[in-house]
Amino acid sequence: MSEQLICRNVTLGYEGNAVTEGMDFTLDAGDYLCILGENGSGKSTLIRALLGLIPVMSGEIIRGEDIRAEGIGYLPQQTVVQRDFPASVREIVRSGCLAKSGKRPFYSKAEKALAEENMERMGITHLAKRCYRELSGGQQQRVLLARALCSTGKILLLDEPVTGLDPKAQTELYELIRELNDSGVTIIMVSHDVSAVSYAGKILHIGNGKQLFFGSREDYLSSKLGQSFIITERGDTGAGNEGAETSSKSAPGELSKGKKAAIAAGTGLLVLGTQQAIHHYVKRGERNG
Fold it and tell me: What is the residue range of 99's domain?
């Protein structure tokens, strides 16, 4: 695989004050990277650096030929004002071509065709004439994905893409993003949602102003950091059910036989959650592994 993005011992910050340091990872074409971390850990700063909006304080970010030529397609977190934007779906999707248009005051035939192609790809062609602010949250995210794909079909950076969506819309969006990745689009997703982990191939976890982990999903889920993060974010309490035995005879802090068996079977998770949680991660991992 060709290296698309390389961060070498990068320190980032503002006005001489470091926000995060020790960023050291490589992204290959076709990868699916999930970036995790608490608020204030430096994720937003890293996003700005990857997009070229701020310089590094030390180290270097090396962008592959694809990024140098087309840049990174970006889907930012939506604000209330952005959700109320009074433009048609087609107009918003076409605006992803603006960087390619330069000073030309109109879209070329090829750019219009690209917009139509990406609307079809996102399943929103029937919404082309609808006003963006009249759409559901899931439909709006599909519009913004189509727009980002008009900017570049090589690599997408998605910042909390499922925030505010209902569970059904979240699942549909995750599946759509997975399909994009399967077609060869490199995905960088920033998320607080632990469900995102099961779709990714690589995990970057940052916290306390530094990189805490970078590696495969499997290694992350079997690490103490990954287990702790998932349990904390899910709010799991250790409530038992069938398939994850939680005998009241177990000593305090001791894993039941069912939990130990689940770990031994290679789920990669410290099974303190529900049967549903176990099933979710195992089945997603089998499909995406």
Answer: 77-151
3 state SS of 202 = strand
Beta-ladder partners of 61: 7
229 within 8 A of 36, measured Cβ to Cβ: yes
Whether residue 260 sits in one domain with residue 128: no
Count structural domains, the chain.
3
Other CB atoms within 10 Å distance of the CB of residue 108: 12
Give CA torsion, residues 142, 148, 150, 151, to 10 deg: 180
Q: Supply 169's token pair.
A: 């819309």
Looking at residue 147, its amino acid is R
pTM of the entire predicted model: 0.78
Helices (H), ranges, the chain: 43-50, 65-70, 80-83, 89-94, 98-101, 109-121, 137-151, 167-182, 217-221, 224-234, 257-264, 275-288
Q: What angle do CA 73, 78, 82 make, to 5 degrees?
A: 100
Distance CA 39, CA 82 (A): 22
Distance CA 102, CA 91 (A): 17
Per-residue pLDDT for the chain (289 aa), expressed as one digit of tens each?
589 999 999 999 999 899 999 999 999 999 999 999 888 888 999 999 999 999 999 999 999 988 888 889 999 987 766 778 889 999 999 999 988 777 777 899 999 999 999 999 999 999 999 999 999 999 999 999 999 999 998 999 999 999 889 999 999 999 999 999 999 999 999 988 888 999 999 999 999 889 999 999 999 999 999 999 888 877 654 433 333 333 333 444 444 443 343 333 333 333 333 333 333 433 444 444 4
Same domain for 67 and 172?
yes
DSSP 224-265: HHHHHHHHHHHT-----BTTB---TTSPTTPPPHHHHHHHHT
